[in-house]
Amino acid sequence: MNQFDQLISGILNQNKRSISKGISLIENNETESENFLKEIFHHTGNAYKIGITGPPGAGKSTLTNELTKLLTKENYSIGIIAVDPTSPFTGGAVLGDRIRMNEIGLFKNVFIRSMATRGSLGGLSKKAIDASDILDSAKFDFIIFETVGVGQSELDIAKTADTTIVVLVPESGDSIQAMKAGLMEIADFFVMNKSDRPGSENAILSLQTILGLKDHNEFSYLPKIIKCVATESFGINEIFDEIKNHKSHIQKIGKFQTNRERNIYTRIKEITELNFSSKIWKNEKINILIESLIKSNESPYLISEKIITEFESEFCRNKIIKI
Length: 323
What we know:
By secondary structure, the chain is α/β, with parallel strands linked by helices. 50% of the residues lie in helices and 12% in strands. The protein contains 14 helices and seven strands. The chain has a seven-stranded parallel beta sheet with strand order 3-2-4-1-5-6-7, with helices on both faces. Residues 86-94 have low confidence and may be disordered.
């Protein structure tokens, strides 16, 4: 019997205790976590992933809360990963979105987990992406990533979500700043939250002007701008309609599968680089070599080249891989 059989069985049955235990296993970097992730991966691939991102104070958590309420009314199950900044003291999540979402957290078909960025500048950590595998295998219909709002570094979400929503408010800044933040490139559509505030029409007009300058063809998807007041549930139905429209579009042109394959390729690359990096810096012979070369006042580029050569030779000697 596999050591994870009981845990995986609970996850497949959407048992919240089992899901929490599985996420804790990977979040705490337990030695068994990679083997566990290998076991559950074959159960993934069914959930539709939504990324909700944008600058701080845009109302992402409120929007996530209201969208989840709507989805549950439509009899969908939802897993939410709220990615917060890392506490410098505990290493855990600081903001605690589960407090702000305590109402939906009690719903039977909703699971919420706050996770820390753990130094990731892209708004998502490797652990959060791993956690989405657990929620996917638990047969949630939708997985929502609500990312830490750090402005110009929110690009990781595009590597993970099927539909990326960028939430802005009239005070988010002018159109040039929005472009500079990189949000224009990753958005499948925009939500202008707090659209009842002064300046919202000008902000929407600026976005529309920029979007009109982008190249479009029959395969591209022109991002829409949805007006919303999340605190009053205004615009939430339109947001869900646009999610469905975008999903239908990318499925129709075959982009849905190619996007997922691209995302998996990127993930494989990042995992492999991380594993190789870990093996290199844990290798005692390589560390001795580095110390020797540094004392010889060698170029960092030469030292890097020698590290790679030594690492390849070490692998060949141990018959780990063939070079």
